[in-house]
Design brief:
Structural class: alpha+beta
Shape: elongated
Distance between the termini: 76 Å
Radius of gyration: 32 Å
Strand content: 5-15%
Strand order of the largest sheet: 1-2-3-4
Length: about 220
Amino acid sequence: MMSMSPKILEESGCCDEKSIYADRTYLSMVIIAIAFSVLPKILQLSIKSSTTSLKEEAMFNAVAYVGLIKSTAWDEENTKVDDILLVTSGNSVYDCNETSGYRAGGMKGSRNCFHKKYASVLGSDSNDLDDMDDFITLNAKNSSSSRDYNLSVTENYIDDITLNATQYTIVYPPNATDTTNTKFITVTVQANKKGNVLGNSFVKILLLPKISGKSK
């Protein structure tokens, strides 16, 4: 398409040079106005996308952390013997018969409680991270110029689930004071930056590793 200079247009009687420059100025102003009206929305969407990405990253790390915890032994005693552990306040249907060495339904040669070991109190054992409750005192941290959050772990014993129950309600926070056959583990992501945007505890994952004495 052939273009014409302002001088040619003026000589042709179409319009003068001032009008052409004025039109161009108005057009530039319209383009700038559109840009300034769109840019805040783009920035807003960018911030929202960044926040979502951060939450998804934190969720992935929390899930990975849960997977790491699940890969360890149920209790410190299970790093020594592959036994069903005895507990002080569990549901009787899960009890392991100390005479026969088996839990109800157990078969000869299956997992047993011949060593008569009791589940441990919760807490880290020599910082070796070889069983689930060792992670209580370990706070993982992801920190950089754009993100800063901690992953913390809490663990409690809770009342055992009744075998014939059709519905089970978990008391939260857990209030069992003695050892049972069921542990309640929570992995929480705590924001150190942008807490007003993300929420202070913006990711929380619950894990219910049931049945005492689960080895690796």
